[in-house]
Amino acid sequence: MTRLPHCDTLRLDLHGSTLFITLNRPEVRNAMSLRMVAELSTVFTLIETDPAVRAVVLRGAGGHFCAGGDLHDMAEARGRPQEGGQPDPFHTLNRAFGRLLQQVNAAANIVVTVLEGTVMGGGLGLVCVSDVALAGVQTRFALPETSLGVIPAQIAPFVVQRIGLTQARRLALLGITVDAHEARALGLVHQVAEGDAELDTQLQQVLARVRRCAPDATARTKALLHRVGQEPMADLLDDAAALFAQAMRGPEGAEGTLAFIQKRPPGWAENDH
Question: Which residues form the signal peptide (predicted)?
């Protein structure tokens, strides 16, 4: 396992093959600062090639997931002059978060978001790049940028991918807040829990399912899903057939098939606790 870094804005806890990342700025409802963006990017870079980390659980400290961008960073960017030939500080700040969303979206690990309290702006962006999203019943979701006179520049494309253009228009253009049950109906989240105990049970069930699936097959499947709509279907299916043949002849395919015949858990499930 890669040595985890010290972080000022995150709490990192590794349990078995699951890395729990807690956004740890509860005094500002875990608002996304540039330091937090940089630390999250560093962690995802470190674990990208580490087969020991199969799942990443993102949640927030203090009863909230994330209240969006950090206003202190924005105030500092406003106070810095845009020097000739240099990028606008607001551009730099905004694009850094977009790169993080791209990184989390493409991560080979299974990314699970556990949502409570406030999920706004950039927090909602993280939800949209997670593989599984679980929400407490009191959670509230919003894209408030247009009501503040700005735009959800890096977030909007991922919202469209998550819930479709029609619903994204309503959320982004009106800046409305939706509750957990509506978020589930929209496809933002997958499950809603009525209380803390149920939320924890749902999370443990998801992680148990992750352990039952072969690590390499899962990563390759995730990458394949991301390619849908990005290239001609015939080419994609041709390549998918080649990937399937490789998987069938590879060690995971052999072990999975044998385990099924022998009516036992495959090795990756037996050895991963």
Answer: none
Q: How many CB atoms lie within 10 A of CB 184?
A: 16
> CATH 3.90.226.10 spans which residues of the chain?
10-210
At 59, which amino acid appears? R
Closest by CA to 218, choosing from 101, 134, 131, 158, is 131
Report pTM. Answer: 0.93
**Which backbone phi and psi does 89 adopt, to 5 degrees?**
-55, -35
Specify the 3-state DSSP secondary structure of 213. Answer: coil
Considering the domain 214-270 in this protein, what is its CATH number? 1.10.12.10
If you average pLDDT over every residue of the chain, what do you get?
93
- The fold for domain 10-210 equals 2-enoyl-CoA Hydratase; Chain A, domain 1 (3.90.226)
Proportion of the chain in helix, strand, coil states, percent, rounded to 5: 55, 15, 30
Structure tokens, 79: 């106070």
For residue 132, which of 199, 49, 84, 64 has the smallest C-alpha distance? Answer: 199
